[in-house]
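note to self: dont lose this again. the chain is below, predicted strucutre after it. 345 aa total, dont forget to put it in the shared folder this time
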Amino acid sequence: MSRTAALYGAVGVAALLAPLVFPAFQTQLAFLWVMVLFALTWDVMGGQMGYNSFGNVFYLGLGMYVTAVVQRDLYFDVEEYAHVAGAVGTLSAGEYLTGLALGLALAGVAAVLAAAVLGSGILGLRGHYFAICTLGLGIAAGEIAGGIDYIGAGSGLVTPVFPDALGRRGMFFYYLFFALAVATFFTLRWLYAGRFGLAINAIRDDEDKAEAMGIHTTRYKTVAWCVSAFFLGIAGGGVGNLVGFIDPTDVAFAGATFGVWMVLMAILGGKGTLWGPVIGAVIFHVTQELFWTYLFGWQRVALGALIIVIVVFFPQGILGWVRQRWPERFGHRVDEEARAPGGGA
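---
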């Protein structure tokens, strides 16, 4: 058995057993996989392609609302549901699963369509112009959602109650997010290994030269954003149901939290790599949970200090730092002469 297969097997077994070994932390563990997915999907644009997007949270929020609206409209009267804040009876296990499955599917489709439409215009921008435009996208979406009565406006939208027949809610969504994170990881692994990966890396290195070589850069950039949007849209539907309440600015389009965390986790682990965002998400989420548990009242100060440490001491990320320190473990040959102080380049 190769080391790669052994690593995948060990991670898989540990992930499957985690909610059983730590039943009191099932919700926190479920959000761990959400964070892994956040970092992986952001890295498609920000790491592999060099386009720093702050608007990925838009697709997360879109997925939340699409899923919740589908679940609500399938079985409830909209006006009655809004009047009593969702407390109009519980769904059976079959009804809940049907509504959730249909909602998640439509959330993924809606996110891809939105990314295709927006990408054809926004992805013509480059550098900080693109970053600022995507930042405004998430903010504008939150304000617009706060004014639409059909989705609860500023009062938010309550998701259907999780039925007791399906067991514990934390465990259910843990395995859902675990499966989604695994699907995201291996889909990106497959894409990066082919022509798509070479094309977006060429865009990152020099977009003008990539265009001169005949690469349709806008097409590849749009497809990359659609891939991120698809998984984020589905994840959004699950997050909305796990939280139980969708606020337009604090949950759905939470750029100040989810939007920033996506970037930090990928940078912490090492952007532009496959495992880097995973490592960064795990470390960031565990550290954040410890801060919120043991440094209550100072947790934001501690989180700010963590951000400074990331930027100053790990500019290339943890994986980049390890690769630079022990390159031979990553298949790079290094002459001993070059390793020695004062050695040649």
